[in-house]
Amino acid sequence: MSPKLVKSILFFFLGILVVYAQEEKSHFNEAINKQIRQYKDLKLLNATKEFYLQKEWDSVLIYSLRQLNEKTSKKEVFDFCNLFRGISFKEKGLLKEAENSFKLISEDFIFNDNINFILAEIYLIQGQSDKALRRYLKIEEINNIEERPEINKINIHHSIGICYLKLRKYNEAEKYLLPTLKELEVIGDTLTLISANINTANLYYYQYRDEEAIPYFEKSYALAQRINDFDKKRKVAKNMAVVEENRGNYKASIKYIKEYDKWKDSLNNQNKIWEVAQFEKRFAIAQKQQEVNVLKAENRAKLAERNGLMFSAGILFLLLLTVTYFYREKLKTNKVITNQNQQLDELNATKDKLFSIVSHDLRSSVNSLKLSNKKLLKNLEKENISVVFDLLKQNSNTVGRAYNLLDNLLNWALLQTKQSYFEIKENHLFHVVEHVVYNYQSIIKEKDLLFKNGVSKHDRVFADQESLKIILRNLLDNAIKFSQPGDSISIYSRDVTTKYIEIIIEDTGLGIDEETRKTLEEIKNISVQERKHKNIEGSGLGLQLCKSMIVKNKGKFSIESEVGKGTKMIIFLPKTPNNE
After folding, report:
1. How many CA atoms lie within 13 A of 92 on its CB side?
2. Computed over its alpha carbons, how large is the radius of gyration of the chain?
3. Coil, strand or helix: which one is 391?
4. pLDDT at 314 over 80
């Protein structure tokens, strides 16, 4: 066998790998969907799953990362996120990143067999046949593989044969490729049979057993005549041309080369033929439409001639009514456009003011960190530990404020673009408050404030839990920010109406004047208010975000305050039947 022939056949072989069948993927996805049903409360995980089923790989990577950043994630949730990430990276062609994600999954994960299959496929694509072989052999050892519809035993065995073939272990390859070829012939999938016959032919060609290999090449050629895949037809014709040239049958080789050129031209011209057909179709429709338009014009002319002056007065009157109607509609449209322009101007002004304040606060935080770090380096050189400790504490507070600002900005942007995920359901109010307050205990203690959770353990409300936590965090953060050492903060609930539960965040801090209170309470659109306390940092975005989320949770909001005597932020949320 000539080197030229080996090179040609090898090129075609490298383009054929056993593909993870669509039916197997369907069973695999059903199994994943069934397992994730137990995590209905994890909205990020469920969103990741939905994006995975829709093959939106970038969204899968974003939402899985957000779920991984949740501190409460269980080990199995961690494994599912890395499974989704690994598959997404593979589909995007990032094989190394896919491999790294799969390796983070626990050894006792329920889908480890499927992960071994995908990893083996990755290794085979990368030319790491020995690694791929180890994975495939591990899958082959599964006791109940016949009961696993998401794992195709024939695909596994054929892939093992390909690995042995690429490792030039021909005897082992033959033990797998020949039996799987017979099984595939029973199934009768033509495309798969073409690939399997090529792989088997290569098995013998690599060993210079030409007489045994050529029938399989001929079988693949015969099968290719049954399909409409021009690219596949072209490749098998090229292979047969090289086979016949190697056998010295140049006449037959020329015939296959001509056939190769024909399929090549067919492949190139297929799109052109379709474009010509579409053009002819459009031309015929346009010509027919022109004939229809001519007939309509003739009918209109005859109708106008027959009716004449008899309908002229009516036409003029109708024209007058039409002009009047359109004039009035134009006035209405202009009024609507004027109102919309005013709203757009207000929104642009809000946007400009928002980004001005946000950029100012972020710049202030970054600049503060920059100056503080210079001081920190100087004091580290002098080993002033107490000063270093104070500077680190100051830096921590600055980073915390910047993080809260960015977090509020992100939630505000998601809310405005309607990308936030809301799931309104029954919530145990006391536990939600306890969960939020836990993260503020050290800050409350550090600022020497008194705190009390007076929320009734029996109160339950209808709300989206994540947005409720954001509301409570921002209001509690404001209460701490505008309180002085020795002041007190309390959160308590009142069940005084038939429809709502009142949640009150009360502090004895600085308070706000009546004009500011009315402005904050009455404003309906998200905007940013000027700060009344210049010595206290903050953009005001958090309070407006809270108001928007309260409205989205079908609730209400009010403020009671007096300068120097503290503030009450009152949230009204729908109560559940358990409170009635």
Report:
1. 19
2. 37
3. helix
4. yes
**Residue 342 falls within a domain, yes or no?**
no
Residue at 318 is within a domain:
no
Which residue type sits at 409? L
Q: Using an 8 Å Cβ cutoff, are 455 and 417 in contact?
A: no
Amino acid, res. 7 = K
Separation of alpha carbons 161 and 153, rounded Å: 13
- What per-residue confidence (pLDDT) applies to 375? 73
45: CATH: 1.25.40.10
Q: Is residue 60 assigned to a domain?
A: yes
Cα torsion 114, 117, 119, 125: sign: negative
- DSSP letters of 437-495? HHTTHHHHHHTT-EEEEE--TT-EEEEEHHHHHHHHHHHHHHHHHT--TT-EEEEEEE-
Mean pLDDT over residues 328-355, rounded? 77
**Two tokens at 26?**
């369907």
Number of compact structural domains in the chain: 2
Q: Tell me which of 98, 125, 151 is where a domain ends.
A: 151
519: its two tokens: 């402005």
Residue 576 phi, psi dihedral angles, 5° rounding:
-95, 165
Structure tokens, 458: 């029996």
Statement: residue 264 has pLDDT above 90: no
Q: How far apart are CA 355 and CA 124, in angstroms?
A: 51
Inside any domain, residue 181: no
pLDDT of residue 542: 77
Mean pLDDT of the chain: 77
Residue 408 is predicted with a pLDDT of: 66
Cβ pair 477, 432 in contact under 8 A: no
Report the distance separating Cα 431 and Cα 435, nearest Å.
Answer: 6
Q: How many CB atoms lie within 10 A of CB 512?
A: 20
Among 334-348, 367-381, 445-459, the minimum mean pLDDT is found in 367-381
Tokens, residue 8: 């040609």
CATH of the domain at 440: 3.30.565.10
**In which domain, by residue range, is 44 found?**
22-151
Task: Retrieve residue 287's tokens.
Answer: 């010509």
Q: Which of 6, 461, 423 is nearest to 207 (CA)?
A: 6
Q: How far apart, in whole angstroms, are the C-alpha atoms of residue 486 and residue 509? A: 9
105 exposure class (CB count in 10 Å sphere: 0-12, 13-18, 19+): buried
Write down the H helix ranges in 383-428: 385-416
Q: Taking a C-beta distance cutoff of 8 angstroms, is the pair 482, 533 a contact?
A: yes
Q: Reduced to 3 states, what is the DSSP secondary structure of residue 501? A: strand
Pairing of strands 488-494, 450-454: parallel
Q: pLDDT tens digit string along 402-412? A: 666 666 666 66
What's the length of the chain? 580
pLDDT tens-digit readout, 201-224: 888 878 888 788 788 887 878 787
Cα torsion angle, 48, 51, 52, 56, sign? negative
Which of 117, 151, 185 is the C-terminal boundary of a domain? Answer: 151
Please give the Cα distance from 266 to 286 (Å, whole number): 29
203 close to 4: Cβ distance less than 8 angstroms: no
